[in-house]
Design goal:
Layout (H helix, E strand, L loop, with lengths): L16 H4 L3 E11 L5 E7 L11 E6 L3 E11 L1 E10 L18 E3 L12 H4 E4 L2 E7 L4
Parallel strand pairs: 1-8
Antiparallel strand pairs: 1-4, 2-3, 2-5, 5-6, 5-7
Length: 142
C-alpha cells in the first residue's frame, strides 16, 4: 500500500454472523480534540488483516460535538484491534487529503499513536478488547 492511500476508514462496519458466536465485548472510544461541531466522528476497530483497508468489520459514528464524543461499538469479539478515528467534516464518509496525500480532516489512532511520515503501525494503534473496554483517542487537527 502506498503512503498516499493510508487511513482508508470504512463509513460503517457490519457485524458478521461468525463473530456473533464468539464472546462479545463493548468497545467505548472516547474521542477528544474535536474543534468543530459539524459533520460526524467515525470510528473503526480493525483486526490486523483489515488494518488500513475498507474492510474493518466493527465501527460506529456520532454527530460531532465540541470537545469530547464517546462512541460505543457493541458485538466486538474479544481480541486485539487497531482503532482509527476520522472527523468527517463534510459528512461524505471519505478522508479528504491534501495535494501531498496528508489528512485534510482530523484523524486519530488508538493509543494516540503518532502520525509521522505515514500512518502508525497496527501494533502502535492496537488495543486489547475484552468485556467492556474504554479507549481514548485525541484527534490530530493537522
Amino acid at each position: 500500500m502506498s503512503k498516499l492511500n493510508w487511513v482508508a476508514l470504512p463509513v460503517w462496519a457490519t457485524l458478521s454472523a461468525a463473530a456473533a458466536a464468539q464472546p462479545e465485548a463493548v468497545l467505548e472510544v472516547a474521542v477528544s480534540g474535536i474543534e468543530r461541531a459539524e459533520g460526524a466522528i467515525l470510528v473503526a476497530a480493525c483486526a490486523r488483516a483489515e488494518f488500513l483497508s475498507h474492510d474493518c468489520k466493527y465501527g460506529g459514528q456520532a454527530p460531532a460535538q465540541l470537545g469530547l464524543v464517546v462512541i460505543k461499538i457493541g458485538g466486538v469479539p474479544d481480541g486485539v484491534y487497531a482503532i482509527l478515528v476520522l472527523h468527517d467534516l463534510d459528512g461524505d464518509g471519505v478522508l479528504k487529503r491534501t495535494a501531498f496525500g496528508l489528512p485534510a480532516e482530523p484523524v486519530g489512532f488508538g493509543n494516540n499513536a503518532p502520525i509521522k511520515w505515514g500512518p502508525p503501525s497496527f501494533d502502535q494503534s492496537a488495543v486489547t478488547v475484552s468485556g467492556r473496554t474504554v479507549a481514548a483517542v485525541t484527534l490530530r487537527n493537522r
